[in-house]
Structure formats: C-alpha cells, structure tokens
Amino acid sequence: MKNKNQTFITAENIHYHSSKNDLFKGLSVSLNQNDKVGLIGFNGSGKSTLLKIISKNLSPNSGTVTHANNLKFYMIEQHFPDSLLDFSLLDATLSVLPCDERYSSGWKAETVLTDIGFRSEHFHIKCSNLSGGQKTKILIARALLLEPNTLLLDEPSNHLDLPTMLWLEQFLSTWKGCLITVSHDRRLLDNVTNCSWIISNNTLYKYGYPCSNALIEHQKLEDTLQLQHAAEEQEIRRLESSAKQLAIWGKNYDSNSLSRKAQSMFKRIDKLKEQQCETIDDYPWYLTFLGRSLPANKIIDINNFNVQLKNSTLKLFNITDFTAASGDRIAILGENGCGKSTFLEYVWHNYVTLADNTSEIQIHPKAIMAYYDQALNRLDDKYSLIDALIMYCDFAGVSVDNETCKKALIKAGFTYNRLFSKIETLSGGERARVLLLGISLIDSHIIMLDEPTNHLDFIGKTELAEQLRAYRGTLILVSHDREFLEKVCNRFFVINNGKLIEYNDSNSAYKSMYSDSSINNHYEPQNSSVQSVPVNDKNDDELLKRLFVLEELLQEDKRRKNKHQKPALQAIWHKEINEINKLLNLN
C-alpha cells in the first residue's frame, strides 16, 4: 500500500552563515508528498539559500539534508542560465536530458513546447531573443521533460507580464506534484499553495495555510512575542533595581548575606536575558510620497500619438486620446514587448526636454515629474549613494543638499559607511530602495513607476501601496502584481492589438488580456496525476480556443513519422474534440 504522506525531503538542524550574517540556526523542516509550499520572507532572509540547501546544491555549515529514494525534483532558478542563451528553444529544452536520450525525445520536447504555448515555427528561435516570461516557460518545459514529482521554484513570477503570470498561475494550480515556490506575489501564492514556510529572525515558521492566512497567523505570533518580550523586560528591570539596591546595602552595612543575595539575583537576571524571547526586527521602510496636486483638468494630455521602438519605424501601439488629472492612479497593462516601458520613456523624454506645445504629448508646464525605470538605470553606477541621489533629484528639476540625502539614506536603513559606497555595489533590492527614496525627496505632481515591485518583499510592497494610495498627484504605474494594482489604481488601461484601451475595472482589463494557453501536461509527475478542467465547465469562446489548440496538436502529431506519433494522445484529443463539437453543435 502506498504511503500517501511520504516525506520527500528532510532537513535537520541546519546552520548556515554567509559572509554578511547568520542565516539559519538549527533550522529543521520536511517536505511531504502532497505539500505545495509558499516560501516567504524579507529580502535577504535566506529563501534562495534554503532552496539551494534542501536541493543539495549548497552545503550547510552543519546539519543534514535527506532525500527520499524516489524523489525526482527539478529546480527552476531565478535567472535563466547564460549557458542556454545561444541554444534554440528546442535544443535548450532537450539539453536537460542525457545526450543519448535527446534524439529519441525530440517529439516529446516539441509536444511539451506546444502544450505551454509555443508554435512549431518558434522552436528554432535563439533563447537570447526571448522575453523574461518566455524564458520562464522554457525552464518549465525542461522540468516537464524530466517528469519530476517535485518542483522547486525561485521567484518564478519575476519579470513576467500579466498574461504570462496568469498562465503560470494556472499551470502551478493544476500541477499535482509537490512544489516549493519562493515568491513575493501574494495572489499567486494564495492560488497555488496549501501551506507556507515563513523565514524570520533566522527561524523558519510552518503554517498549514496559503500565504494570506499564514501571514495573519504569523502576525498574531509576532504580537504575542512583543507582549511576552515587554513583560520579560519589565521583570528584568525590576530585578536589576532590587539587585542594585541589595548590593548597595551589602556594601554600606558590610553584610555578606545581602551581597550574596545581590549576586544571586544578578545571576538570575543573566539567565533571564539568555532565555528572553526574540522579537521580530522592524522593517526599514521610511518613505513617503505625499506629492502635490495641480488645479487643472489635464495634467497629461496625449492625442493621436504612435508609440514606436527607438531608432525604428515599427509602431507598437497608437494612443487616440489619453488624459490624466491629479488623483488619477493609472495602471498600464499588456504583454511583454507591447510598449509599456517605451511609452513611459516617451513621456519622460518629453518632460526632461521641455517639448513645446505642438507635441502630441502635453504635460502641464508647472508639473514636476519623478520616474522609476524597470532597469533601475536612473541611478549612475559610478557615483556614491549620496551623489547619485542628488543627481537623480537634480535631473527631475529638484535640488536637495548633501545633509538631507545622508539623513534620508540612514532613515531608509543604510548604515553610515554604506553612504559612500558606489551604486554598482548595491543589490537589486537596495538599488530599488535608493531610487524610491529619490522619488520620496521630490515633491512631485506626477510619478511614473515601471515594475516597482520586482525587488520588493511583502512588507515593502504593502508599504509602497499605502503611500501611493495617499499620493495627491498623478500616478502612472506598470506592474504585473494584481494585488498591488488593485490596491493602488483607480483607472485601468490595456495595450492590445496596437491600441491603448481603458476598461472599467481591473477584472475587465485582465479578461481582455487572458489567453487560454493550453496547459495540458501529458507528462504526469511521478506518483501524481494532472487533471484538465472539464470541457463542460468552459464557455463558448474558451471551447473554440481549446478546439483550435487540439486540432493543431493533432495535425502536428500526424505530420510526424509513424514511429514518433502518439496514438494514445491522439485518442484523447479526438475524444475531447468530439465532446466540444457536441457542446457547440458542430457535428
């Protein structure tokens, strides 16, 4: 009889310290067969390190990691391997297999790539020409080809556009194997996981809930620890006062008895301090974006403008009519490569070059604008944090002095010694914090943010969302994080079919973008099964899309040599095609 709760991975008494600090002290955790785990923690808390340790790609300083004999896992890392960039899609997928299996598995790789949304004409495109979302799909294709029973994913949603994010969510929610995913996307974790591991203060806390409920329970624990810590502090102060008084009396009255009691009490105090519970460290977020409003109906006004690639005549999309006023918090949505970032660059260029009133892009002449670019290139690598911050504000037309920048950087969590480090020494998360700090120093009328949550953890995103909701000026935001968008924005635009279109709400905008990519994984995880959504649960549009995909799969397979065809799959596809035809009365 099979053990339904078999343990796949066990980590015991793990200690690990990096060059900067201790990450884990006596950490123990196990991954069971049916677990879908969300791994949560602040930036720098050790989430990626823990994934590497439990996958045995990194050795801890002490402790053991044990894998079950039938564990078959694949790790999807945060960054696409440079070694695969010169490979075609097909070759990059096949390269995960041993050399002697690649030729005979070509048909299988093609089927996997087709199932996750690629067409046969894409198979020979170089991976270096792919978007971030497409590269993530290639990593998933490599995993499916190996048929693992466990997936380890490190920030799989980073740099994805919203359609690909929706695709990833659907894929992971139908995955019947085991998984651990590191992510700062609360919506994704809520929809694909059934339990959570939260790393905090070098300790791992386990909860049997998805992300949102787990964070609520963890907050309750933090509140309890704070109360317990405060009570212990009060008791320690009381004992210290008594011990000091006894020591003074013992000295003044030459009483050995009182002196011994004082010494005994001091030892008790030391023991209490050793046993005192640890509280959760405060989060270093001290940024505000108050902004200013302008008494005008139109802060930004764009008419009949073509957004096109720089140094190219290729048109990405057309803006027929776009206006923004103070208080508008606008979301710009669309697929990777559709022109979202290019649009923001055009508006910024118009602002800094002081384009005249004949331009198709009109910005209120009194408006001050701040801009956060996705690549974080607004900060110059060769300058110190202080100088780069001064230059950033100056470029936006606002002067700040050296002392103001120093105080702001220290308040934002940077130590005094770090203030004179060059920007190039910062991590992605630290660069993001400096750039957001620059925006907070600019008392602006307009803020443009291009994927500001890519380098922020849960608390950072929550704090930023609260600040932006209170912003009094005009906000234009590009983001793939649905919860963040819904908290912040009150207007929603989608770039689709070469046009910028406004929708009444976020759900309408999402539906306009969502393409029901086939995610029928025919390569079931070991000891698990992948079930497709029942045909009769879909509407007519979805059925037609599914019918088209099935017929394309069938024709692709029939074009192969007989020995490479898959009769069993063809039978499944034929059966589903017949069911759809009946539902649509196409027979």
TrEMBL record:
Native species: Photorhabdus heterorhabditis
Entry protein name: ABC-F family ATP-binding cassette domain-containing protein
Origin: domain of life: Bacteria
Secretion signal span: none
GO MF annotation: an example: ATP binding
Classification via InterPro entries: AAA+_ATPase (IPR003593), ABC_transporter-like_ATP-bd (IPR003439), ABC_transporter-like_CS (IPR017871), ABCF (IPR050611), P-loop_NTPase (IPR027417)
Pfam families given in the database record: ABC_tran (PF00005)
SUPFAM superfamilies: P-loop containing nucleoside triphosphate hydrolases
Coiled coil residues, start to end: 222-275
Record key words, sorted: ATP-binding, Coiled coil, Nucleotide-binding, Repeat
Stretches assigned to the ABC transporter domain: 9-226, 302-522
